[in-house]
């Protein structure tokens, strides 16, 4: 595990267990699932077979008062400012480039709390317009939201035809990332 990811885990107060069968992958390599947006991640792993990569993106959620949000709206001449605890929905919308209502599978609240210690969790599928590492055109994303604290997006990139294997990998790695 690299030093920067260790600092992020400490700052966000996350318990992390590296999954068996995975190795560190260069986290500085960007990916472009959307043709015009660069996506950066704090940490990346790849399985020993080389057909599934896991990438982590953690975003702080800083509570804001109504006055602070109004100041931001006026400063940047925006019609609307998304409340910090709703930004994860906006991020998902941008990643899917479409209606998210029917494409997100939310986990039951009790499961999200017990497994990840978060308020909202779920998953969705993405197809990448540009392949990550020249072979990963698809990804499943597990998203986690903890009110007033953080959003986390765990991307499971996989090769064509490995849908069942990525589902098994998600199930096996459920306990690797948990907020304290």
Give structural notes.
With 180 residues, the chain is of the alpha+beta class. It has one domain (3-139). The protein contains five helices and eleven strands; from the N terminus they run H-E-E-E-E-E-E-H-H-E-H-E-E-E-H-E. It has helices at 3-12, 66-75, 87-96, 109-116, 163-172; strands at 14-16, 22-25, 31-34, 37-39, 43-47, 52-60, 105-106, 120-132, 136-146, 150-158, 177-179. The chain has a seven-stranded antiparallel sheet. Strands 1-11 form a two-stranded antiparallel sheet. The radius of gyration is 17 Å and the shape is globular. The protein starts with a helix and ends with a strand.
Whole-number total of structural domains: 1
> What series of H and E elements makes up the topology?
HEEEEEEHHEHEEEHE
Briefly note the structural class of the backbone: alpha+beta
Compute the average pLDDT.
83
Rounded to the nearest angstrom, the distance between the terminal CA atoms is: 19 Å
Rg from alpha-carbon coordinates: 17 Å
Shape assignment: globular
Poorly predicted regions are none
Strand order of the largest sheet: 2-5-6-10-9-8-7
Largest sheet data: 7 strands, antiparallel
Number of helices: 5
- How much helix, percentage-wise, in residues? 25-40%
The number of distinct β-strands equals 11
Give the strand content.
Answer: 35-45%
